[in-house]
Design a protein that fits this description.
The protein is 67% helix and 0% strand. It has one domain. α2 crosses α7 and α6 runs parallel beside α8. The longest helix has 48 residues. It is an all-alpha fold.
Length: 363
C-alpha cells in the first residue's frame, strides 16, 4: 500500500504531474462542453419560440352559395368579434419583454465568459512564461513547441497553483470567500427554480457541471435565459409545482453552510499542508448539495444560512484587520493574481445579474 501511494504521489507532482495536468485539462474540456451544450440548446429553443396568434381583423371570408329561390334569404353572419384580442396582446407584450430580458442576460453571459477567458489565458501564459524563462527580447514571445508544452504540463502544478493563488494573502482569501459563497447561494436559487419547474436531470446536468468548473455569473445568466425560454414555450400554464409530500427528510441548509464557511476559513492557513487540496475538493462537493434534493430550500432557512455566512465573512475580515486594510481588500480584485481576478470580476458580474433580477428581469 505504501508503494502504491508513493507511485500515485509521484504521478501527481512534478516532474511527472500527470494527474494534476489531466485534471486541469479535463476542467477546460468539460467547461467547453458544458458551455457549448447549453448555448446550443438555448439557441435552438429561442428560434422555436411559438408566435402568439395574430389579432383577427375584418370580416371572415364566407363561401358564396348559389341563389335558391325556394330557400329563404338568410341574414349575413355577424362580424366576428375578437374576444381573445386582449389576451393575445398581453401574450405578445410578455413575449417581447422576455425576449428583451434574454438579450440582457446573454450580454451579461458574454461579459462573464470574456473576462473569465482573458484571466484564465493570462494565468496559463504566466505559468508557461515562468517555466520557460523570459523571451529573448522584449518584442518576442517564448518559444512554444509541442514538446515544450508537454514538459511544462508535467513539470508544473497548474491545479494546485491556481487554488493556492486564491488564498495566498488576505485580500485574495476575502474575494475567494465572497465568490464561493455567492456561488453556493446562487446554486440554492437555481435548485429551487429547477424544482418549481420540475426540470429533469438531463436539462439540469450541464448547469450543475458548469457550477463546479466555472465562476457562477456565466452559469446563472444562462440558467435565467432557460427559465425565460421555458415560460415562453408554455405561457398559458403555470410552472408545475413539486409534490408536497415527500418520504425523504431534508437537511437544514445551515449545516452544509457552516461546513463550507469553516472550510473557506481554513484554506489560507492550510495552503501549504497536504490537506489543502482535499479541503478544496470538499468545498466543491458542498457547492453541489443544493441540487441533490436532500437539502431544504425553504426561504426562512436560506435566510438563516445567509446570516451565518455573513458572520463568517465578518470573522474573516476581523482576523486580517492587523495585516490588511479594507482598502487593500477592495483593491485585491485588481492587484491580485489572475485566479483572484477571475473570481473577483465574476462576483461583480454576479452582482449585476442580481440587480437586473431585482430591477425587473425576474422569472
Amino acid at each position: 500500500m505504501v508503494d502504491l501511494g508513493g507511485r500515485v504521489a509521484a504521478f501527481a507532482n512534478p516532474p511527472q504531474n500527470i494527474v494534476g495536468s489531466t485534471l486541469f485539462l479535463a476542467y477546460i474540456a468539460l467547461a467547453l462542453y458544458g458551455t457549448t451544450a447549453i448555448s446550443t440548446s438555448l439557441y435552438s429553443q429561442y428560434n422555436s419560440i411559438p408566435t402568439p396568434p395574430s389579432k383577427p381583423t375584418g370580416k371572415p371570408k364566407t363561401k358564396t352559395k348559389p341563389k335558391d329561390k325556394k330557400q329563404t334569404k338568410e341574414p349575413p353572419p355577424p362580424e366576428e368579434s375578437p374576444q381573445n384580442a386582449p389576451q393575445q396582446l398581453q401574450q405578445q407584450s410578455e413575449q417581447n419583454a422576455r425576449k428583451r430580458h434574454i438579450k440582457i442576460y446573454a450580454f451579461l453571459a458574454s461579459i462573464s465568459f470574456a473576462t473569465l477567458s482573458y484571466h484564465m489565458l493570462s494565468f496559463l501564459i504566466s505559468s508557461y512564461t515562468a517555466y520557460s524563462g523570459p523571451p529573448k527580447n522584449l518584442h518576442s514571445t517564448p518559444d512554444m513547441t509541442l514538446t515544450s508544452l508537454q514538459e511544462w504540463l508535467l513539470h508544473t502544478s497548474l491545479f494546485d497553483t491556481f487554488a493556492k493563488d486564491l488564498v495566498r494573502d488576505g485580500p485574495s482569501a476575502a474575494w475567494t470567500q465572497g465568490a464561493v459563497l455567492a456561488t453556493y447561494f446562487w446554486n440554492i436559487w437555481m435548485a429551487d427554480k429547477a424544482q418549481q419547474r420540475s426540470y429533469p436531470l438531463k436539462t439540469l446536468f450541464p448547469y450543475i457541471l458548469l457550477t463546479q468548473i466555472l465562476p457562477i455569473s456565466l452559469t446563472v445568466s444562462l440558467f435565467i435565459i432557460q427559465l425565460h425560454l421555458t415560460s415562453l414555450h408554455s405561457p398559458s400554464s403555470p410552472p408545475p409545482q413539486p409534490p408536497t409530500t415527500t418520504t425523504t427528510k431534508k437537511t437544514n441548509p445551515t449545516l452544509p453552510t457552516i461546513i463550507l464557511n469553516a472550510s473557506l476559513l481554513a484554506l489560507a492557513p492550510l495552503r501549504n499542508h497536504a490537506v489543502f487540496i482535499p479541503l478544496v475538493l470538499l468545498t466543491r462537493f458542498i457547492l453541489v448539495t443544493p441540487f441533490s434534493g436532500r437539502v431544504s430550500l425553504r426561504d426562512a432557512q436560506v435566510v438563516q444560512s445567509i446570516a451565518i455566512s455573513g458572520g463568517f465573512v465578518f470573522a474573516q475580515l476581523f482576523m486580517m484587520r492587523k495585516t490588511t486594510s479594507m482598502g487593500e481588500v477592495v483593491r485585491g480584485v485588481w492587484t491580485g493574481r489572475e485566479a483572484v481576478k477571475a473570481l473577483g470580476w465574476d462576483a461583480q458580474v454576479g452582482a449585476v445579474v442580481h440587480l437586473v433580477l431585482g430591477w425587473g428581469g425576474g422569472v
